[in-house]
């Protein structure tokens, strides 16, 4: 009895082969789309990003216009001060939108900075291995044991406050975990059976890296990046709260919350508006990150 | 085991020295100095002041002097607060910071692991869902948002606790510490609950738990005698980072609730270039974090028989 005896069977097998195979990422996307919390969060986050970019330009008030006669106006429909005004008579909606934009931008840019440093450092250490690896990771350990916030506060003090420094300072501190993740993955993957199998099957080195190594390193990195954006936003707000973040009249959510916390007795809306915006943003980012983790790395569910 | 401790301490000491060195030169690299006021003082006065604090010496000389004093346990005088030694400032602030930090950690560990275990044992029920929602809230609301809100609601609106820091007549009283402790603990409760849930779920699916159930042990015995022991390991390895997070969180908490701890001094001192105070706080906190990390590692080894110290 020979295999594939009839023409019919042959055709069937050919047909099966022509059906597009689902890749790792197609599967992950499908799983992500089934996660209602993550999808809702993506929609809300999309709206927030639109508001922070387009909405800010279209809104009737400017974020730095001072209405001297309208200090601490409670939320009202009159003149569209729907979230009230702050201690200097500036419209809260406009300020929250600008603050949201700054916070989101810090989140993304600082994350990219840390991604670049972390992936380079971790991949180099993992790939070279041996003494170099030991020395590089020991350095990371030492930086880990310095409380991040002291480090950043000193950086801000040394170089003065400006927004680019905030990106770099936060990114330069948050790359440590990324470096560890990437190193661990690289080390683990180097000796995996499927890499060996691919090598044995005569797959080229380049193809192995492209098809086997990168997708496997990318999963945890993507997940970590999405979960890092909220952490970075929090770090920036933390600095702003201590008075070390962006400078007036520019603002960020942390700065608005800090100001609102001081004025919460006479004008609670100056705290509630930015605080709620911040919470919603962080909720969305965390839900998306969790959803991505479940989608990309289903064994953790 | 002993060798392991020795080796870890052998690494920890140079690490602390490196941190002190970095902090020393970073502070000195910052533009401005402790005696640059808005109104410039006469050059002579300035020179006398500098000489008084040994700051007319070359930088390397100052560094060696500082390290020498440090070896004798002297953190030097504050450059900004008159007639105050850094040792005094830290001795005054430490009890407050330590009390808040300690109780926050205790609260976070007990409540966090309890909530996480409950959620895991009732996976995908309403109880699990509400614990996870609470955890998400705890992670998404930073202490500096939660603090003012709690103070507003419980202090001002409900009048349950006094606001505005400690009463100097009575010192640390529970009614004035409860809100700071809860605020500082909340994010850690949330993180620990999530950790605990994930690891508990993994453990109760494992073979040895099935065996324990199959041989007829009560649910109570299965959970407490078997599952909890291995489920608690990820929590133990998180203790180091958790203590670091609580320490940096205390910077904000002490400001929000106007508590006279150590963290309160740090930011102001850095902005005013009060070098010795900044250094003192960094040294205390860095040492504390390193020691706590070491203890957490040891505890992990004691609890996990798979770890071998060669």
TrEMBL record, chain B:
Keyword annotations of the record? Cell membrane, Membrane, Transmembrane, Transmembrane helix, Transport
> Where is the protein found, in the record's own terms?
Cell membrane
Q: Looking at the Swiss-Prot or TrEMBL record, what is one Pfam family this protein matches?
A: BPD_transp_1_N
What are the transmembrane regions? Answer: 9-30, 100-121, 133-157, 177-196, 235-257, 277-303
The domain of life is Bacteria
Any single GO BP term: transmembrane transport
- Please report the stretch or stretches of sequence annotated as the ABC transmembrane type-1 domain: 94-300
For this chain, the family text in UniProt reads: Belongs to the binding-protein-dependent transport system permease family.
Q: This chain belongs to which protein, by name?
A: ABC transporter
Q: Organism source for this protein?
A: Maricaulis virginensis
State the organism's lineage. Answer: Bacteria, Pseudomonadati, Pseudomonadota, Alphaproteobacteria, Maricaulales
């Amino acid at each position: 009895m020979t295999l594939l005896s009839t023409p019919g069977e042959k055709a069937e097998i050919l047909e099966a082969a022509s059906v597009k195979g689902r890749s790792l990422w197609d599967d992950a996307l499908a799983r992500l789309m089934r996660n209602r919390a993550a999808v809702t969060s993506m929609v809300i986050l999309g709206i927030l990003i639109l508001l922070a970019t387009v909405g800010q330009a279209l809104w009737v008030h400017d974020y730095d216009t001072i209405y001297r006669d309208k200090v601490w106006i409670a939320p009202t429909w009159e003149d569209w001060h729907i979230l009230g005004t702050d201690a200097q008579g500036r419209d809260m909606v406009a300020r929250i939108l600008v603050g949201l934009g700054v916070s989101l931008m810090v989140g993304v840019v600082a994350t990219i900075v840390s991604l670049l440093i972390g992936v380079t450092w971790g991949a180099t250490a993992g790939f070279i291995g041996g003494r170099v690896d030991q020395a590089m990771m020991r350095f990371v350990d030492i930086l880990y044991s310095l409380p991040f916030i002291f480090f950043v506060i000193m950086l801000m003090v040394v170089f003065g406050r400006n927004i680019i420094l905030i990106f770099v300072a936060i990114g330069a501190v948050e790359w440590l975990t990324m470096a560890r993740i990437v190193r661990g993955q690289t080390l683990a993957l180097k000796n995996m059976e499927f890499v060996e199998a691919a090598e044995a099957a005569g797959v080229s080195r380049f193809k192995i890296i492209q098809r086997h190594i990168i997708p496997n390193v990318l999963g945890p990195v993507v997940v970590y990046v999405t979960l890092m954006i909220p952490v970075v936003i929090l770090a920036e707000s933390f600095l702003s709260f201590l008075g070390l973040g962006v400078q007036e009249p520019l603002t960020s959510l942390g700065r608005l919350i800090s100001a609102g916390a001081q004025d919460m007795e006479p004008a609670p809306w100056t705290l509630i508006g930015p605080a709620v915006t911040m919470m919603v943003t962080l909720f969305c980012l965390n839900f998306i990150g969790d959803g991505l983790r479940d989608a990309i790395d289903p064994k953790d569910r | 085991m002993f060798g392991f401790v020795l080796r870890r301490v052998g690494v920890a000491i140079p690490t602390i020295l490196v941190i002190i060195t970095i902090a020393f030169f970073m502070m000195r690299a910052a533009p401005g100095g402790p005696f640059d006021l808005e109104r410039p003082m006469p050059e002579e006065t300035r020179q006398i002041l500098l000489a008084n604090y040994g700051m007319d010496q070359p930088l390397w000389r100052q560094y060696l002097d500082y390290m020498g004093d440090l070896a004798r346990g002297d953190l030097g005088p504050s450059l900004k607060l008159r007639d105050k030694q850094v040792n005094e400032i830290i001795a005054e602030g430490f009890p407050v910071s330590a009390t808040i930090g300690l109780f926050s950690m205790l609260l976070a560990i007990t409540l966090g692991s309890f909530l996480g275990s409950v959620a895991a044992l009732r996976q995908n029920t309403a109880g699990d869902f509400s614990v996870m929602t609470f955890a998400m809230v705890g992670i998404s609301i930073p202490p500096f948002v939660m603090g003012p809100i709690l103070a507003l609601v419980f202090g001002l609106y409900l009048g349950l606790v006094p606001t505005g820091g400690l009463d100097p007549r009575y010192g640390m009283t529970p009614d004035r510490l409860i809100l700071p402790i809860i605020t500082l603990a909340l994010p850690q409760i949330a993180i620990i609950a999530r950790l605990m849930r994930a690891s508990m779920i993994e453990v109760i699916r494992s073979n040895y738990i099935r065996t324990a159930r199959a041989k007829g042990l009560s649910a109570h015995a299965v959970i407490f005698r078997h599952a909890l022991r291995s489920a608690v390991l990820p929590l133990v390895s998180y203790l180091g980072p958790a203590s670091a997070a609580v320490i940096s969180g205390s910077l904000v908490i002490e400001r929000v609730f106007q508590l006279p701890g150590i963290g309160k001094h740090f930011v102001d001192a850095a902005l005013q270039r009060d070098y010795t105070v900044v250094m003192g706080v960094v040294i205390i906190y860095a040492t504390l974090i390193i020691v706590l990390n070491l203890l957490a590692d040891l505890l992990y080894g004691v609890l996990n028989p798979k770890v071998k110290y060669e």
